[in-house]
Amino acid sequence: MEHAGHAMHVGHQGHAGHDMGLVDGLPMADRADDRDGLRLDRLHVPLGPVLTDWPSGLVLRLTLQGDIVQEAAVEAVGIGEAVGIGEVVENVEAVDQATTPPASRSPFWDEPFLLAAKGVRVSQGDAARRLCAAHLDSLGRFFAVVGWGDLAARARFARDRALAGTSAAELTALVSPVIRRAERSRTLRGLTAGVGVLSGEHARHHGVTGPALVADGDAHARMLVWLEAVGRGAATVDVSEALDATEEAVGPRGRIADGATPASQGLLDVLPCLLDGAEFACARIIVASLDPDLDEIGHVTMARTHHG
Predict the structure, then answer these.
(1) What share of the chain is helix, strand, coil (3-state, %, to 5)?
(2) Measured distance between the N- and C-terminal CA atoms of the chain, rounded to whole angstroms
(3) Which member of 82, 85, 227, 242 has the lowest number of beta carbons within 10 Å of its beta carbon?
(4) Dist. CA 74–CA 47, nearest whole Å
C-alpha cells in the first residue's frame, strides 16, 4: 500500500503531565494504554489537505497507537468545525487559497440537478452523463489508493470521454471492461472487503443518503454500487427527454435540495466512526470509498450566509 506523499507530521503531547521533549530536534511520541492494556506510543498524524487522490480541503487528525487509529477528527478546511472521536481539535490556522474548496460556485458534479430544481431544462442524458463521470472520478481515486494505477487511469479516461460528450455506445464500451475487471477481481476484494463497514442503519443515522447508504456494507460494497451506477448511466447519456424537476434530485453523493444539509456532510459525519479502530493502512481506502465532495458543503454554507 503506497502512502508516499502524505507529508505526515508527527505531533506530541505530554501524557499524564509529562513533557516528552525533543530528541535531535524531533518530537517524541507520548504513551497510553492500548486496547490490550499495553503501553504504546501515541502518534498524532494529520492527513491532508493536499494529497494525491484525496478530497481537496479535507484534513484528518489521527491519533495512532501502533498501526491502529484510536481517535480521529475530521476538518473541512475553511468551511466548518472539526468533529471527531474523543477529543475535538481546532481548524487548521492557515491554508493557501488554492487548497480551500471554492464555495462561491455551484458544485460541479451537482450542477445539472441544481439547475433542474431552479426550472432550467436539463436532459436526462446530461444528468446521467454528469453522474456517470462523477462516479468514474471517485473510482479513479479509489483504484489509485488501493494501488491499481492501470484501472485508475482507465476510469479517468472514461470520465474525460463522458464529459467530452461521447455517445452512449462508445462510453459503454469504455466502462464495461473496467466494471468487469473490478467486479471479478479477487485481489481487489481482498484489499477492500471488511474495510470501513457502514450499515444502512448507521448511515441513515448520520444523514447519509447516497451510494454509501445503498451499499449497506464495506468499501468493496460501495465500489460495487458506483460500478453499477456507471454502467447504468453510460447507457443513458443520449436520452434527450427532460429531467423531471418534480422528482427528488439525487446526485453522486446523495439527495440534493436547495438549502438542505449537503449529502457530503453526512459522509464527513460518519467518517470518524469508520476510522476508529481501523488500521492506519486502511484509512485512505475508507476515505476514498466515501469520497465526500467539499464543494457541496462550501456551496450550501455560502448560500446560508448570504440568505442569513
Answers:
(1) 45, 15, 40
(2) 46
(3) 242
(4) 10
248-307 pLDDT, tens per residue? 888 999 998 766 789 999 999 999 999 999 999 999 999 999 999 999 987 665 554 444
- Going 229 to 159 to 213 to 126, the CA torsion angle's sign is negative
| Residue labelled with grid coordinates 488501493 | 146
Question: 233 φ, ψ to 5°?
Answer: -70, -40
The three-class DSSP label of residue 253 is: coil
B/e letters for 211-245, b = 16+ CB within 10 Å, e = fewer, are: bbbbbbbbbbbbbbbbbebbbebbbbbebeeebee
Beta bridge partners of 75: 59
Contact 234, 133 (CB under 8 A): no
The tens digit of pLDDT for each residue in 101-150 reads 444 467 999 999 989 988 899 999 999 999 999 999 999 999 999 999 99
Helix (H, G, I), strand (E, B) or coil at 39: strand
Helix (H, G, I), strand (E, B) or coil at 180: helix
Grid cell locating 100? 480551500
Q: What is the rounded CA–CA span in Å between residue 282 and residue 291?
A: 14
For cell 476510522, the residue is: 275
The C-alpha atoms of residue 298 and residue 22 are separated, in whole angstroms, by: 39
Read off the pTM.
Answer: 0.79
CA separation for the pair 176, 178 (Å, rounded): 5
CA distance 79 to 81: 7
Give the angle 228-231-237 at the CA atoms, nearest 5°. 135
CA 37 to chain centre: 33
User: pLDDT, tens digit, for every residue of 264-276?
Assistant: 999 999 999 999 9
Q: How far apart are CA 128 and CA 89, in angstroms?
A: 39
Kindly report the length of the chain: 308
